Request: fold
Amino acid sequence: MHIRGSDRARLATESDYSTLLRPIFRRIEGKFSRAEPREHALGYLQGLLASSGQQNSRKAIVQAKDASSDGKRRLLTTSRWDEDGMRDEVRDFVTERLANPQGILVISEDGFVKKGDHSVGVDRQYCPGKRRVENCQLGVFLVYADGHGAAAIIDRELFLPRNWCDARDRRRSAAVPTDVPFRPKDELAGLMVGRSLDAGVQAGWVVSRLPYGGSHALRAELERRGMPYVLAVAPEDLPDVPPAGGPTASGFERRLLRHAGADDGGDQPYLCFVPAGTDPARLEHALRCAGEAGRHLRSAREEAGLDRYEGRVWRAWYRHMTLAMAAHAGLVVARTRPAGRRRPVRQAGVSGERTLRTCPRPSAEAGGSRSAGPPLQAGAAR
Reply:
């Protein structure tokens, strides 16, 4: 899902990314009650797509059209808009356009290296991208993969280390809400998976190649929902009695799968909960899709500025991540769906199906969507 530099330049020259962003922005613009932050948001999205991997968000902000840097900073901190509502719209946009009953919810992580210790959640902790301990923030992400090579981030949570949770002064300086408790990463993952399933997201699997399988609470909740899973587990967290593969009363069976890819070069154990008689090839396919999550996170970094921000406070982190998710979702969907193709979408609590229009597939010459009208303006009619 990577745009070459030459294609990126042609995209910016042709339409300032407005054609590519039109479908996703029309989906999220209703989260802004005033025109000014709505215009700043559009400029921010365009700046994220236009900026290179070496630029930070301040430079991306300067590049954005018709909006001040001060206004863009307010967008991340004091402007009134609903970042969680936008998160839900991005999730629904992605999962409707990539809808697949056998879609895969992938639990993943990404680290954001920081020099100081004032940015919210910064600590000495393992950074997945660097594969070593770094001074970094750690985000837990939920990626939706359609099983055919397309995937995008649909949820995000910042991991707040316990030493942050117990430090009132640090919490206050980073504007961490007083009702935010310490939550281990597996609990954050469970919150995101639960939100998606409660919203009616079509998915056949929950998969992680990170050792989230050691969480009994996460496994129990997925089993309660009848949701198949393939979750990596640290060797020390393996159950004393490995799953025997016998069917449960619900028609599922628990398995222990060993798959190449452990950090030491050996086999990584996975705890599985699958319908009885599931072909092992389906588990292997789900794991391959999960293994691509890191690539999709890198794409969100390089092409949509996931890591290009300077905000130190709690809300700024969530707002930037949500806007970057929206920008990346626009890229992914534009490249994935042929013109005119419709996908059935299941809604929570609705037995029927509805069809949705999809945005055109980007032309090979431009690297982006074919022009479907005038450049997008903030506040454009739906």
Q: What stands out?
A: Residues 106 and 290 are 6 Å apart (CA to CA). The first helix runs from residue 5 to 15. The two ends are 28 Å apart (CA to CA). Residues 1-14, 52-67, 339-382 have pLDDT under 50 and may be disordered.
